[in-house]
Each structure stands twice: as C-alpha cells, then as structure tokens.
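JOB MANIFEST
job_type = single_chain_structure
chain_count = 1
residues = 492
[input]
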Amino acid sequence: SKMADDKENKKIGLKTTLDMVVEGCRLPVKMSILPNEEEEWPLAEILSRKEEKGKLEFYVHYIDFNKRLDEWVLPDRLRVEELQFPRKDQKTPQKQTSSAANSRPTTPDRDLQLSKKLSVPEQISSPAAKLGGLGQTPQAHMKSNAGRKRKAFLLDEKQDLPPAYCNSLSSQDSTDGPPTPQPSAPPQQPRQTGSMSSSHDENIITRIKNIETIELGKYRIKPWYFSPYPPELTTIPIVYICEFCLKYVKSRKCLERHRTKCTLRHPPGNEIYRKSTISFFEIDGRKNKMYSQNLCLLAKLFLDHKTLYYDTDPFLFYVMTEYDIKGFHIVGFFSKEKESTEDYNVACILTLPPYQRKGYGKLLIEFSYELSKFEGKTGSPEKPLSDLGLLSYRSYWSQTILEILVTLKPENGERPQITINDICELTSIRKEDVISTLQHLNLINYYKGQYIITLSHESIDSHNRAMAKRKIRIDAKCLHWTPKDWAKRGKW
C-alpha cells in the first residue's frame, strides 16, 4: 500500500541521513535530564559511533558543558535536520589540553611588595566577594622535579555543571545498565611498566568514558572520565573495587572471595591524624606501590587531563577516611611530592563523589596547610589551577584570611595593624596567594600613603555565614606527625 511505502521510504531516508552523521559533525542533541526539568537540546559534537546487534549509538560531547556529561545516545535524540558537517579546511575542534587562558590564577607579579603596615579601619565600605564555593578541588599541573622529567598535565573544568548532576552521579541506587559502549577503534593497552600514562595529547580513546559503573563499598558511582583500567574491565557493567586496598575485580563473587583474603580495614601506611570519625593516613608511594597505583587509577575516573604513571616513588599520599564498625572508608585524598622545588604542598587532590558538597574538600585543603605549618614553611597547590580548583582554593584562602582579620583587636586605641608576612606565617599560605586573594575580595586599598585593608559589615556578615557552614575543622592537637627531610635521605 502507499502508506506502507511512505513509511519504508522514511526509514530509508532516516538511515541515509544517519549514515552522514560521522565523527566531527555537530548537531543539537537532547540532553539526559533529571525529573521535573525542561528538555534541553544543546549543540553537541559526535566523537564516535558504533552499531551492535543492529542498534546504532553515537558518543556525543555537549559543546558548552563539562566532559563528564559526555554520553552514548540513540538516534532519536539527534536533531539530524540541523546537522553541521566538519570543515575540510579545519580539523575537528578539540578541547584545549591547556586552559591557561581561562584557568590560570590571577596571581599578581612577584615584585609587588606590600612591605608597609596594613591598617584595618573600623568601617570603610568595600564590596566583598561572596564566600563559599565547592568543597572539592580537582588539581593541576605537575612540574619537573630535580633530575626527573615528568609530563605536565592540566585539569580543564567548567563551572557550568548543574549541581544536581553531582548528586545524581553518586547515587547509591544507580542501575547496572547495559555494558559499557566501546569505541569503534580497538582500545589502547595501558603501558604496564614505567610511566602509566594516557597520552597528554587527547585522542579519541581517552575522550570516551570506558568504565560504566564502579562499586566502592556501599556506593555505586558513575565515573566522569576515562581511566586506563585493563581492557577486560571495560566490557562489563560494573567494576568492583575493594574499599580498603582498592584492588579491582570484575564480579561480586571475585570481590567476596578477595574479602576473605584481604586483611586491611584501613589504608596502608601510618595513621597520623584522628578526631572523632575522621582519620588521615600517610602512604609512601615507594613502600606501598600497588595501593598508590590503584588510588591513581580510581582518581583518574573523576579527574580530567591527568597523566597517570606507575612511578609513584616521588610521592606521598594522604588519604582521608571516615570510620565505622566495618573499618576506615576512603573519603578523599591528596598527593604531595617528597621534594618540591617550588614548595608545592599539593600535587593532586580529590573528594570522591558520594562525599562531595559536605565540607570534606576544604578539610583536605586545611590539612595540607596544617602539614605546611608543621614543616615551618608556606605552601601552595601546583599551578595552574583549573577554574574549579581556583574557585575552591580561593574560597578556603578567603575564609582563612578573613578569620584572622575579623579577630584583630585595636592596640592603644589605634586601628589594628598586620603585615602580609604576618598572615603568611599564621596560615602557611604563600605570599602571592594572600595578595591575590585580598585583591580578589577588593579588600586592599591605597589610603593616605599606605596600603589598608577595608572590611565592611557586608563582608563580615558574609564571612560569618560561610564559617557557620563549616561544621568540621582540623584540630592541630590531633595531628601526630614529624616532617622528614627527603633531600638528606638520598633515596626515597
């Protein structure tokens, strides 16, 4: 009949159109939405396509959104009538491997000296940036250590991720879903010796998420990015990870068998801090290589543009845990070079998704500065920071510096005075970071021949509200740790 012929012609026409949708094309794609949200059709780029058992799927990247939202979609979510073909004279645009233009912190020139006393007037109205922000800080750029060459890496984060996605991705009742889709090209084997690095130059393999879901303790978590786990784990719906030793297996049965043999109920290494249910463990990357490598693989699932390598010897890992009757459960961690020529006190930092937005990120940052205080020097995270990394650190720096300023008391009836160096000594925050934070908050002004810090009622109220939300803090009395001079040890 004519109606049947029309239907058949439409199907043929649609198939012909879908055949034209190839890697590099752009078109509007219906984004996965949460309940009670309006439909969105943002522009997306086709990164890959595959056909299994007659089912065609496309892997898309939403142009103005973070890569963690990339996903496989069916043809019915593509608006093919608005298809844009890639230009022949131009390569398919790729995300910059360096977002220096956007993410480099606005650190002032090193020669900016504020040697004069900073007086704090009682009230001079000045706009103050709103305090607060994310509690987790994916981290950045690793510079070469003396005698060692290591690849630089940078985390490119966007600030436009809807907050609801952060919560939904770490839901405990995530469904298993179908097996993880694979790119049409065969997956590249991660190197098993030396530097275990997914190439810093982005390629199609590393742009596509390869793990569908992980189960870590009581949580099932949807990964955000690619991580070079063994290829056999990329074809199964769930990768099971022991929450104590971080060993990965391919089935629940294997995990249960492993649990009968695994004696760990906490991370290996020394417990250097405990208060209430929060503990920190110091892990030497040389003494506990397997744990450190597994930790890096796990972290890569939630950090973008990271170089992974098996050479963990030059690093210390500080793992934060939460205790219950079953053991010490990993919440987050940061790594730190044993010898840093730039006096960096953090190389990489992460709070796992189920624990994000609960203040644990700031606790990790606060702990890193507490270690710097014990070492008797100032520290700073490795630069350049991602946008989200800068946002998180700026929030911590703002709260810490304002906490000191609002408690200053007048001396002999005069306005209280403090120098930049005083703030550095009290907080262990590097001088450049202190100055850039004060400038960011619009607190520094030049008044009658001297630099002054101006605090308004608005900035003080904003600070008090932000501090009221920080329920957990580091207690220096609970830290039992002696810094080591790694330079004198000769060998890590």
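[summary]
The longest strand covers residues 327-337.
The CA atoms of residues 190 and 460 lie 51 Å apart.
exit_status = 0
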